[in-house]
Amino acid sequence: MPSSTRFVLIQPSHAGNVGAAARALKVMGFDDLVLVSPRWSDVLEREETMERASGAVDVLRNARVVASVEEAVEGMTHVLATVMTPRDFGPPTRAPREHLQGIAPERHSVAFLFGSERYGMRNEDVYRCHAALRIPVSPSYGSLNLASALQVIAYEWRLALGGFEAVEAGVPAAAAADAAAVAGMLQHWQEALVAIGFLDPAAPKKLMPRLNQLFNRAQPTPEEIHILRGVAKAMLETAKKAKP
């Protein structure tokens, strides 16, 4: 069977973080959120929670509140703590990507545990886990907001599961102009550059071949060729007006 995934917030104290966590989960395609003894018994319905969820109300509606970590991880076969500091007698501490890429999702139901905002995870909760995940952060400042940490872990796990197919947004790219159009534009620019005194026709050196290569790399569209020829036309007209 394919893996099921659960995210567990242990004693969350800020309603906004619960809402933001729900939003982070929905963005990554997860919806199993469990809260262990939250500060507010009605945290899933509080106004701040709903506002920070920003449309992920369905995740909040499906979320559960339980009294213990044991209840929260019931039925899960691979339990992972999230820590800032490795525990001397705890499970191995690994970077998320290193560890998650090695999990066989067809064999395991995975639970991710996050400690309270003020104290992090208690040792006894870390010790029950198969591994502890430590997000690589700056050594000088490693404090991550709860919802931000959850977003990083959810993203890494989604990558390990294969990710989502990227969808190209916006208008499809226009076809590049053909070689004749580029050559005509370059001829127009050569005339304009001579007119403004930038190009010496008696000693052109490598300017035009280099411009030719530049525009070949850029692959301008027909509309962009039209703009460039408009620039050349304006240069020619300006040079003509400037002559005594």
Q: Could you tell me the number of beta strands?
A: 7
User: How do the SSEs run, as a string of H and E?
Assistant: EHEHHEHEEHEHEHHHH
- CATH fold topology of the largest domain: Alpha/beta knot
Strand content: 5-15%
Number of helical stretches of at least 4 residues: 10
Q: How does the overall form come out from the CA principal axes?
A: elongated
**Assigned CATH superfamily of the largest domain:** SPOUT methyltransferase, trefoil knot domain
CATH architecture of the largest domain: 3-Layer(aba) Sandwich
Give the total of domains. Answer: 2
> How would a crystallographer describe the biggest sheet?
7 strands, parallel
Mean of pLDDT: 91
Low-confidence stretches: none
The radius of gyration over CA amounts to 30 Å
At the first level of CATH, the class of the largest domain is Alpha Beta
Strand order of the largest sheet: 3-2-1-6-4-7-5
- What is the helix fraction of residues, given as a range? 40-55%
From the N-terminal CA to the C-terminal CA, the straight-line distance is 85 Å
Structural class of the secondary structure composition?
alpha/beta
Descriptive keywords:
seven-stranded parallel sheet; elongated; single chain; 7 strands; 2 domains; alpha/beta; 244 residues
Overview of this protein structure:
- The chain is an alpha/beta fold.
- The chain has two domains: 5-160, Alpha/beta knot, CATH 3.40.1280; 179-242, Helicase, Ruva Protein, domain 3, CATH 1.10.8.
- It contains ten helices and seven strands.
- It has helices at residues 15-27, 47-53, 57-62, 69-72, 96-100, 123-127, 146-160, 179-195, 207-218, 222-242, and strands spanning 5-10, 33-36, 64-66, 78-82, 93-94, 110-114, 131-133.
- Strands 3-2-1-6-4-7-5 form a seven-stranded parallel beta sheet.
- Helix 8 packs across helix 9 (207-218).
- The termini are far apart.
- The model has no long low-confidence stretch (mean pLDDT 91).
